[in-house]
Amino acid sequence: MNPIERGKITLDAWRARRATPAEIEARQRRRLAEMLSFARRQSRFYKRYYADVPEGSTDLTQYPPVTKPILLEHFDDVVTDTAITKAEIDVFVADETKIGERFLGRYPVWTTSGTTGEPGIFVQDETAWTISDVVGDRWIVPAMAELSSLSRLITQNLRIGLVAVSGGHFAGAAGLEMMRRESVYGERRLRLFSPKSPIDDLIADLNQYQPAILEGYSTVLVELAQAQQDGRLNISPALVLPTAEPISETQKRRLRDTFDCVVRELYGATEFVPIAVECEHGNLHANTDWVVLEPVDEDYQPVEPETPSETVLITSLSNRVQPLVRYDLGDSIMLYEERCPCGSAFPVMEVGGRQGAVLRFETDDGNEVPIFPLALSSVVEEIPGVRRTQIIRTAPTTLQVRFSVVPDATEDEVWRQIEQELQTFLQGHGTGHVTVEAASEPPQRETRSGKFRHVWSEVID
């Protein structure tokens, strides 16, 4: 994308921040009509899939929803650039040396960890990549205008630290690596921290790095706040951005009080990164000028405002290389009709789902150590042959692993590697006495939500 086009998108996004409801709706309506028309012309899959929908209709309820398995099954026909094929994408994402590179030199490619089943593959075009930056900035940058925040940003040399799982083409880690490769600023001032690291190592690394902005999994940031209170961590970020996992108001207040800084929750997904951003009043605002959100029940029927949905259908208005129209994201959300006291006309929303528990074990020397859910589950998910996994703490020192394998994998061989990798991971955290056992049943969906929880405990502490 040339600088002029990027500038136009950036200017429009910032103007929309204080737009009226009618102005936001007009942007959404215009972009939706353009996206539906484009998808029906340029995507072989959508052309067939919408054959019975009247031409030119922008009534989304007439369009059948899509799911991750459907998009994966018809991947080559969904994408609108015929140079992109699932076979070549699979080779690309299997190569860890390609993390941070663009596929075909043009397209960022992100993979999901498979919260709702199969890992997904999502190709971004330049507009989608630009929007992932700009839409978040329009909420966050004004929050940093106070003198104390600016002073910290300068003192910490604008360094940004991201706590996210590496080792794959995940949006967070791979996106950061791409910025490092493509920007002189990024190479010097962006750093990835792994939640898989023992907590003491993570604390030591952050003490050395001294980030001005710290973003990452909510559970990890809350644990780091405790370390700061205990005197083990000594950092002074200007901004903390919890994301990827649910976080309560109490926990956000704890982050603000502990680090004495601005805290803004981010809600997004690999499929569409900047779905919502928190304002100064603590409310998540959905970026509905660039995404359509439809909270629905189990039959894909709309739910009333302030009613938790079973899932949410999202329609991306930015990505044309792999259009997402009424895509079943799997998260439970609530939308509110009332305006936020901050004055923004963007709708307020709340998010459920994405459940995972921090597991705490006594170490071999008698201390307590936290094991973070996304770090633990990713150890198993990265093992070749693993299709799905769930990890349950069934006793104080016992982890039970449910797993399923891909068709060409041998279950016994995969289990031996799971056991070995988990034991190595746990020993690295000083908890080598924890027993890892295979469950007799495969991963199960929750009856009510249909989602897969990855990590939880059945032990009452």
Automatic annotation (TrEMBL):
Keywords: Ligase. GO terms for molecular function: ligase activity. It comes from Haloarcula nitratireducens. InterPro entries: ANL_N_sf, CapK_Type1_Caps_Biosynth. This is Phenylacetate--CoA ligase family protein. It comes from the Archaea.
